[in-house]
Amino acid sequence: MMRVFAVIAAGLMLASCGSNSVSRALDSRQNAGPCPPASILYDASRVVELDGAGQDYNNITYTGEMTDVEMFCRYVDDQPLRASIEIDFAFGKGPQATANQHQYTYWVAVTRRSSKVLAKQYFSVDANFADGKVDGRTEVVEDIVIPRLDSTISGANFEVVVGFDLTDEQLTFNREGRRYRLDAGSGS
After folding, report:
1. Beta-carbon neighbour count of residue 83 at 10 Å?
2. pLDDT tens track of the chain, all 188 residues?
3. Which one, 33, 54, 130, 187, has least CB within 10 Å?
4. Where does residue 52 fall: left (phi above 0), alpha (psi -120 to 50 degrees), or beta otherwise?
C-alpha cells in the first residue's frame, strides 16, 4: 500500500511541474503545426582527412559521414519553437591514422526556408576505433530555438541544416564528387 502511495505521489509531483523534461517527454498533445524540415547539407555531409601528398586512399587518416537526421519539436502558445535533432554519424579510420580516438566538428544551423542563416552553433563528436576501423553513433542536440514571432508563424517557414566543419580543401574535395567508402581496402 505504501509503495502504491509513493508512485501516485511521484506522479502528482511530476504533473505539477509542467516545464520539466520528463513532463515534456510525456506530453502527447498533437503539435499545433509542423516541425521545420531538417536536412544534411550535401557539400558538408562528409569529411575526409588526409595526411601526405595526394588524395589517394593510402593518405587517409580519418573519414566521417552524416547518414541521417531527424527533427523533433514542440509548439507552446506563441513562444519560439523548441526543437531537438538526432544526427546519425559513420566514422572511418584510414591507413595514416595514428590514434584510436578522433574528434569531429560539426554545426547545426537554423535558417529561413532556403535562405538566411538565423543561428549557427558548433559541436563536436568523438569516434572510438578501439574495436576496429569503423565506428558510428547518434548525437542528439537539444534545445534548438526556432525564432518565430507569434503563433501564426509555422515551423515550416524555417529549416534546420547540419554539416561537418570543413576546410576549403575538404569542401572542394566534396564538391568534386570524390569519396572513399568507410570500409574500402579493409579486405571484407
Report:
1. 23
2. 444 333 333 343 333 334 444 344 445 666 677 889 999 999 999 999 988 777 777 888 999 999 999 999 988 888 888 999 999 999 999 888 999 999 999 999 999 987 899 999 999 999 999 888 888 999 999 989 998 888 888 888 999 999 999 999 999 989 988 766 555 444 44
3. 187
4. left
**How many other CB atoms are found less than 10 A from the CB of residue 179?**
14
List the grid coordinates of 101. Answer: 580516438
The count of structural domains within the chain is 2
Please indicate, yes or no, if residue 185 is contained in any of the structural domains: no
Separation CA 180–CA 167 (nearest Å): 18
Q: Which grid cell is 170?
A: 575538404
The single-letter code of the amino acid at 19 is S
Q: Do 63 and 94 contact (CB within 8 A), yes or no?
A: yes
How far apart (Å, rounded) are the C-alpha atoms in residues 78 and 45?
Answer: 34
State residue 82 phi and psi, 5-degree precision.
-110, 135
Residue 39's domain comprises 31-175
- Please check whether residue 65 lies inside any domain of the structure: yes
